[in-house]
UniProtKB/TrEMBL annotation:
Pfam families: PadR. This is PadR family transcriptional regulator. Transmembrane segments: none annotated. Residues 8-18 have a biased composition (Basic and acidic residues).
Length: 202
């Protein structure tokens, strides 16, 4: 497949994204990674398929318990941490996280500690014992998250967005001054044109 390039006018609106500003497009339906759907998280809210949940209730309890063992966390901290560990591919919704935290509290596996207007959850001795008893299952759940993140990185165009972000930053830094001599402008244009031609030939 060949793509045409307009060398007279740059394309605007490329989203280079960040940790939370990256692509959050369609979710994972049954045809996605491992058949796991994202519909209970924010991914599913943006066109995701109605596939299986990433974690069932018991699995999510173990994931949250392990993250809380690492350090006391608020509900939204847990959402962000899961999103980070999945490479931005999956983030459970507050409507899933908070009832699960309440259940963990009721089970005596965590305890809530008020910090201003928010609650931070810390693990209890019973919670630590639960993680020890189910260590193999916990390891497998976090491996699933890591694999989802690796798959997302390979298929979401992340390296391209990173490279485009670097290019934009360099161009702004090098050419954003009050005056740039014509020779420099032509040299940069030649480099960009050559890159476009190489990509076109792939």
């Amino acid at each position: 497949m060949r793509f045409g390039f307009n060398h007279g006018r740059g394309e605007r609106g490329q989203d280079c994204g960040g940790r939370h500003g990256g692509p959050r497009g369609g979710g994972w339906g049954r045809g996605g990674f491992g058949g796991w759907g994202m519909h209970e998280g924010r991914e599913g809210g943006r066109g995701g398929g109605r596939g299986r949940r990433m974690f069932d209730g018991g699995e999510l309890r173990l994931v949250l318990l392990k993250l809380i063992e690492e350090q006391p966390r608020h509900g939204y901290d847990l959402i962000r941490e899961i999103e980070e560990r999945s490479g931005g591919a999956y983030a459970p919704s507050p409507g899933v996280i908070y009832p699960t935290l309440t259940m963990l509290d009721d089970m005596g596996l965590v305890e809530a500690k008020a910090e201003g207007a928010r609650k931070a959850f810390a693990i209890t001795e019973a919670g630590t014992a639960e993680l020890v008893a189910k260590a193999a299952e916990v390891e497998a759940l976090f491996q699933r998250l890591a694999e989802l993140g690796e798959h997302h990185a390979r298929t979401s165009g992340g390296p391209i967005r990173r490279a485009m972000g670097n290019l934009r930053a360099v161009l702004q830094e090098r050419l954003g001054g009050s005056e740039v001599d014509p020779d420099t402008l032509h040299a940069v244009a030649d480099i960009l044109d050559e890159a476009a031609r190489k990509i076109e030939r792939l």
